[in-house]
Amino acid sequence: MNDSASLSTMQLYGATIAIVSGLYSAYLSVSGAQMSTGAWFMLTLGLVVIAHGVVLSTPAADRLGAASGPLMLGYAGLMLLNQLRLSMSWTVVGMGGGGMDGMGSSSMRMGGMAPASEMAMMGADAGMVTIAVIMLASGLIMTVRRGMMATGE
Fold this sequence. Notes:
Blueprint: H1 9-30, H2 37-56, H3 68-95, H4 118-122, H5 126-144
């Protein structure tokens, strides 16, 4: 029997969502101007989510059992909270004091250095929020319909 035939459709969807969101999170974290604490958090979370997605796409997914849906909910919650934090940082840093110039960069720079990380100054990323909401929906579905996660023979 082919290993991919033993995986449920829900596992494959969950794996795809996890891998895509993990890759996007990792990409966003390393594409900024500097590695802040938030960027390291996003990179670490992205790598964990990628690993979860890879496990979901293999027969080893059975070892996760009913924990896969709640794990996806947790990842999505952390991603959304991080985006909320970035949004709040942008509000404080980007709009306070020096404001923003026409190119979208802070005019509060001193000696060529930004007062906070470039990622925090960007605010929330709409793509990351969207992927996290899709992951949240996937986690809810995986949690509510646990029986559909079982592989068929």
